[in-house]
């Protein structure tokens, strides 16, 4: 019997993918940072039994339609907005993601980004490295406090809750907005559910952690930024497309809000001359929410286990429903 064929769209640790090498012919795109070109991905997918994919791979109708042997797509991410899940399902293709194991790592980064933006850490670090530190002034690089301020979390899923937990350590007042209220979170973390508008108006830090859906696309637009405090800092660790970047840029230069910490962008990688990332009051990161070595390795292993389970006729560990 011929072995199944698995295509892995980016260089991953072979050690973590061991369960796959034991049961299949595994081919891996050899680049760590450059995505597999679309044409090649289509070609590989056409004969693949399984794909291990990244957020940057578009797994759409065209690809799925032509992938006659495809049984499972394991996405190295908790999000799956790059995959046409309902079409995959209609073709009997199972979609898996990597929830839970990245929750704390992503919450650490999100809270760190909030701290870095509020306390102007990247600007201050550059100041030292660029040899600008010649003396000391009482308001030199003064940022704003985080402790005892109000954090407003939009999207109180697992990562949102983990961020809220961190905020309690900073004695923050916690507001949240979510499609569904979560009474447990309210009891455990003292978080208060409010409307989107109330959250915008009352928060010192507005933290976006929603998945990208038709409902959340460009939710942070000029109307939203207008409703925020002039001193507010906007943090985005979900998806770039939940923000209208032109509106965010205008809000930042006009002083409608005071700063932004962004780990995600509409087009990634963002162009180095993009006006948004030139601003002093913006801290920009290259989508590293889950990027600790431990977590990324665990994500690879989970993808491998999910694919192996499906190809062996078993239930995957984490399936997108
Ligand atoms: C990804 C993410 O893991 O999990 C997600 O949804 O956004 C990140 O943690 C990363 O972009 C690799 O695909």
* CATH hierarchy: architecture of the largest domain: 3-Layer(aba) Sandwich
| N- to C-terminal distance | 32 Å
Taking all residues together, what is the mean pLDDT? 97
CATH topology of the largest domain: Rossmann fold
Number of domains: 2
Number of strands: 12
One letter per element, helices H and strands E, the order comes to: EHEHEHEHEHHEHEHEHEHEHEHEH
What share of residues are in beta strands? 5-15%
Structural class: alpha/beta
Keywords:
321 residues; alpha/beta; Rossmann fold; 2 domains; seven-stranded parallel beta sheet; five-stranded parallel beta sheet; 14% strand; globular; binds 2-keto-D-gluconic acid
Model description:
The longest helix is centred in the C-terminal third of the chain and has 19 residues, at 293-311. The protein is globular and about 75 Å long. The model has no long low-confidence stretch (mean pLDDT 97). It folds into two domains: 5-100 and 293-311, NAD(P)-binding Rossmann-like Domain (Rossmann fold); 103-284, 3-Layer(aba) Sandwich (Rossmann fold). The chain is built from 13 helices and twelve strands. It has a seven-stranded parallel sheet, sandwiched between helices. A five-stranded parallel sheet has the order 2-1-3-4-5, sandwiched between helices. The chain is of the alpha/beta class. Bound molecules: 2-keto-D-gluconic acid (8YV). 2-keto-D-gluconic acid (8YV) is lined by residues 54-55, 76-79, 102, 287, 289-290. GO terms for molecular function: glyoxylate reductase (NADH) activity. InterPro entries: D-isomer_2-hydroxyacid_DH, D-isomer_2_OHA_DH_cat_dom, D-isomer_DH_CS, D-isomer_DH_CS1, D-isomer_DH_NAD-bd, NAD(P)-bd_dom_sf. Keywords: Oxidoreductase. Belongs to the D-isomer specific 2-hydroxyacid dehydrogenase family.
């Amino acid at each position: 019997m011929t072995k199944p064929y698995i295509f892995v769209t980016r260089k991953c640790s072979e050690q973590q993918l061991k369960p796959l090498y034991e049961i299949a012919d595994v081919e891996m795109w050899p680049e760590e940072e450059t995505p597999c070109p679309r044409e090649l991905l289509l070609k590989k997918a056409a004969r693949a039994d399984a794909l291990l994919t990244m957020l940057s791979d578009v797994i759409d109708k065209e690809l799925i339609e032509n992938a006659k042997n495809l049984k499972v797509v394991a996405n190295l991410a908790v999000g799956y907005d790059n995959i046409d899940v309902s079409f995959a399902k209609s073709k009997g293709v199972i979609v898996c993601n990597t929830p839970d194991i990245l929750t704390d790592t992503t919450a650490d980064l999100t809270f760190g980004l909030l701290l870095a933006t509020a306390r102007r850490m990247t600007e201050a670090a550059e100041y030292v490295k660029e040899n600008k530190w010649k003396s000391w002034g009482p308001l030199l690089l003064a940022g704003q406090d985080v402790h005892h301020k109000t954090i407003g979390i939009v999207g109180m899923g697992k990562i949102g809750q983990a961020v809220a937990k961190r905020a309690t350590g900073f004695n923050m007042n916690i507001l949240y907005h979510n499609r569904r209220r979560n009474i447990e979170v309210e009891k455990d973390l003292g978080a208060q559910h409010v409307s989107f508008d109330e959250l915008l108006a009352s928060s010192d830090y507005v933290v976006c952690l929603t998945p990208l859906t038709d409902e959340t696309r460009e939710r942070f637009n000029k109307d939203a930024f207008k409703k925020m405090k002039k001193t507010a800092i906007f943090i985005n660790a979900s998806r770039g497309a939940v923000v209208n970047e032109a509106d965010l840029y205008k809000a930042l230069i006009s002083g409608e809000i005071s700063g932004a910490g962004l780990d995600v962008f509409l087009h990634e990688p963002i162009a180095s001359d993009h006006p948004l990332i030139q601003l002093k009051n913006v801290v920009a990161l290259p989508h590293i929410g889950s990027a600790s070595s431990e977590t990324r390795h665990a994500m690879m292993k989970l993808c491998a286990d999910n694919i192996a389970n499906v190809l062996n006729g078993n239930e995957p560990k984490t399936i997108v429903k």
